Amino acid sequence: MQNQGAVTAITAKRLTLALAAAGVIGGAIGAIAVNHNNVVAANAANAANAAAQANYVAAPTPAPPAAPGSLAPLALPDFTQIVSRMGPAVVNIRVMGSTKTAMAGPGRGQQLDEDDPVSEFFRRFQGPQNPRGQPRDTPVFGAGSGFIVSPDGVILTNAHVVRDAKEVTVKLQDRREYRARVLGADAKTDVAVLKIDAKNLPVVPIGKSSELKVGEWVLAIGSPFGLDSSVTAGVVSAKGRSLPDDSAVRFIQTDVAVNPGNSGGPLFNTRGEVIGINSQIYSQTGGYQGLSFAIPIDVAYRIKEQLVATGTVKHAKLGVTVQEVNQSFADSFKLESPEGALVANVERGGAADKAGIKSGDVIRKLNGQPIVASGDLPAMLSIATPGDQVKLDVWRDGKIVQIGARLGDASEKVQPSERAAVAGADGHARLGLSLRPLDPMERRQSGIASGLVIEDAGGAAASAGVQPGDVLLSINGRPVTSVDQVRAAVGNSTKSVALLIQRGSDRIFIPVRIG
């Protein structure tokens, strides 16, 4: 559940990722009066939906004839019939949860002396049920959108819309309201399934997002800022977008106006079919700024089937850590273009390890599908099933090698390793680094004679800017080639250490405070 105005921190160099669901914190949602057209009866809506599923196409506005030698002018679509026929199957979702807040004292958080007469006043009139300094539950409200996919009340929405919700209310276009049950939610793909106790409800037809084309007209219906049944339209800006967050989805990018409250609502094509779930926006303010992202319905429906059947979703994993292939890496590995997923680390005992994948491999294809950006690989794997057999095209030693692998289960824990942490004399991981020696191929390809590959970074090192895939060359000016040398160097330091890091073609010193 996302609070209104809750967005990730804004940096000067890039836009921040903001979830498009929002609500009001600490009070009831502001009532916004909206005038509605006459409500379409349920039976009439079902009949209309059936007609819409018969390859309905939005009627275009006539365009003037094209000039000789030019492309035919494009006709603008008429979305009115899609709105009237599909609108009744789009719902408004309100959620209520709670958060723990600590009472610092009366007024604006000031502490009063127990002998102060004002303190006695607050004790009398606020009651003793919440002793000073102890946390209490504060109501939190949020809102979003969704759409009905089954006449018996199955609804699709975003997982972040109902996250941590204690109560979920679904409001239909005809103003009826139902208490909803969350059948399941998958944070990795941001898909959730709700169920209300109702029958003969209008439903949306489901299309194929794989057939969507860049430049195609699309339409969104939802409840931005609590304004029920709001309609916005635009075009598909791009497909297969990987975003810098924890999601494993290749999004549909559009310029459809999506704002807080639109999350979980449907994205329609001109045939009136749902081809995506509106999920995220890029914004510096928390509001729409021209970029919105939708989860492809092909992905969402696979997740929906698992959630309805079991309430949970199993995701597959290959067991590798990958990074982007830039031009420098492409030149080093003699690749024709900077494309693919560079394997920085292979999880010991995982699917990739068993298949023979190594650090320094560049995965170019998965089951024949090209991998352009490194984010394409986890997105492809997210819709696979543990145990699936996959075929990988891997660039190794200047040529393509085909490797077969059986995918593992992403819910399984990584096997513990002796090199899992660099500890000081007190036995605690003071740097927060997971290290291993460079293997011969990595030394040959990188030109680094010796060093330790940083498989994972956390704690003090991560806060200082150390990243997985970096190579640790020295500590405080002394070369390191083993975990024992690192442990000794850290153990002899009391406040900070200077790490010499190789990152790509650059070498930089990074100071890390360990005191």
From TrEMBL:
Residues involved in substrate binding: 160, 190, 261-263
Chief subcellular location: periplasm
The keyword Repeat is annotated on this UniProt entry: yes
The protein's enzyme class: hydrolase
Keyword annotations from UniProtKB, A to Z: Hydrolase, Periplasm, Protease, Repeat, Serine protease, Signal, Stress response
Annotated spans, Disordered: 123-142
Record bears the keyword Protease: yes
GO CC annotation terms, alphabetical: periplasmic space
Catalytic activity: Acts on substrates that are at least partially unfolded. The cleavage site P1 residue is normally between a pair of hydrophobic residues, such as Val-|-Val
InterPro entries: PDZ, PDZ_6, PDZ_sf, Pept_S1C_Do, Peptidase_S1_PA, Peptidase_S1C
PANTHER family: PERIPLASMIC SERINE ENDOPROTEASE DEGP-LIKE-RELATED, SERINE PROTEASE FAMILY S1C HTRA-RELATED
NCBIfam families for this protein: degP_htrA_DO
Family note: Belongs to the peptidase S1C family.
Stated name of the protein: Probable periplasmic serine endoprotease DegP-like
Organism (species): Massilia psychrophila
